[in-house]
Amino acid sequence: MIEDAKNIKQQETSEPKERFAKSMWAKMLAPEHLQRVESEVVERFVPAGSYACRKGDSVDHWMGVIDGFLKMSSISPEGKTITFSCMLAGGWFGEGSMLKTENRKYDVVALRDTRVAYMPRTTFNYLLDNSIPFNRFLLQQLNERLGLFISLVEFDRMLDTDTRVARCIAAMFNPYLNPGGGLQLQISQEEIGYISSVSRQRANQALQLLEKKKLLSVDYGGITILDLPGLRSFSSQFPD
């Protein structure tokens, strides 16, 4: 059964500075601004399979991943699950809804046990009003996210399955949207299937092809990227 994060007990399990260690924007803040953020952001533990937030919720927080793995998705009127993005440690999301003060347009579910940071709207607005570096970061992040969403339309409508898996994996290594990782990623084949909207078996077949092309290596419990530019430009319609 999927639970809501609001029904999950808040847990203060990490030091404030640890919560922002992998967040690009936090490193840009003036000390007094970061101090306020550290005192006002709360942390919650979201078990695997539970909602961090749901479509239709009021948007009262900007949210970030301290540790774990979240999937942003929605269900079409036809019942098809559409995955928009995945967030790893250091990734923050929901700034568009915060700026527009609208209800949330998507579900966010934990694919594994995840610690989520919740920044109140008042804190978010304080940074908008007082921090030029924070505003610059948001502009860049919104631009990166727009590019990602445009590419997702291409992935879903124009690309074959192997290419879609390659591009969806590559998208997780965006330095603005997911700044916390290196070229090794602890991710299961089932999780790759979730983010690519394919079955675990089909994801496995695509990974075997990408490994054969020397774009990545499949490790126990994860993958290692060997050629990120090649993964981003891969197309099985144009074989070597």
Automatic annotation (TrEMBL):
**Keyword line:** DNA-binding, Transcription, Transcription regulation
> What SMART domains does the annotation carry?
cNMP
Residues passing through the membrane, by range: none
One GO cellular component term noted in the UniProt record for this chain: cytosol
Keyword hit for NAD: no
Q: Which InterPro entries match?
A: cNMP-bd_dom, cNMP-bd_dom_sf, Env_Response_Regulators, HTH_CRP, RmlC-like_jellyroll, WH-like_DNA-bd_sf, WH_DNA-bd_sf
Domain Cyclic nucleotide-binding: residue ranges: 25-145
- Key word DNA-binding present: yes
The residues forming a coiled coil are none
Domain HTH crp-type, which positions?
159-229
So which domain of life are we looking at?
Answer: Bacteria
Pfam families with a match to the protein in the record: cNMP_binding, HTH_Crp_2
Molecular function GO labels: DNA binding; DNA-binding transcription factor activity
User: Which PANTHER family is this protein grouped with?
Assistant: CRP FAMILY TRANSCRIPTIONAL REGULATORY PROTEIN, DNA-BINDING TRANSCRIPTIONAL DUAL REGULATOR CRP
Q: What is this protein called?
A: Crp/Fnr family transcriptional regulator
